[in-house]
Amino acid sequence: MLEERRGAIDLAHGRAAWAVHAEARADRPEEDEEDLEYEAMQDAVHVAFAAAQPSQKVLVIAADVPDGALVPATEDGGAFGVALATGSSGRIASFHVTELDAAAADEDDTDPALLWFDASEGPSALAYLDSATRS
Asked: 59 phi and psi, to 5 degrees?
């Protein structure tokens, strides 16, 4: 799908995801939307690292989905955890690949740094991730 540059991603009913939702906004009224999006992205990265091998970097896809397609799932996914209430399609906004692998990120006490790729650069994000895995 990413190599085809479709610009959209199909999301199955029940799929876990991370997003800025009404409950997260209400819990953090002093934070602006960009800060909340950063925190949601970091939650997604930490969950991806937990499932990764120590030498792996991870890819996180940022996508826009209809608000009605998401339900909070904070008991499993942290403050920004959501689940897809229905199957949906999301418009890809960007791709993010971690600079550090899972082991190095675990040793670092800061938020993992992310390389940003435009929505049209899915193949480049995959190539970077693949080259990082081989090195």
From this structure: -115, 130
**Would residue 5 be called left, alpha or beta, if left means φ above 0 and alpha means ψ between -120 and 50 degrees?**
left
Task: Decide: 100 and 108 in contact? Cβ < 8 Å.
Answer: yes
12 φ/ψ sector (left φ>0, alpha ψ -120 to 50, else beta): beta
pLDDT, one tens digit per residue, over 88-134 is: 989 999 999 999 999 999 999 889 999 999 998 988 998 988 886 66
Q: Output the DSSP codes for 16-81.
A: EEE---HHHHHH-TTS-HHHHHHHHHHHHHHHHHHHS-TT---EEEEEE--GGGEEE-HHHHGGGE
Return the bridge partners of 90, or none.
Answer: 9
Quick one: CA dihedral 123, 124, 128, 134, positive or negative?
Answer: positive
| Predicted pLDDT of residue 1 | 56
Residues 73-85: tens digit of each pLDDT: 877 778 899 999 9
Domain ranges of the chain: 8-134
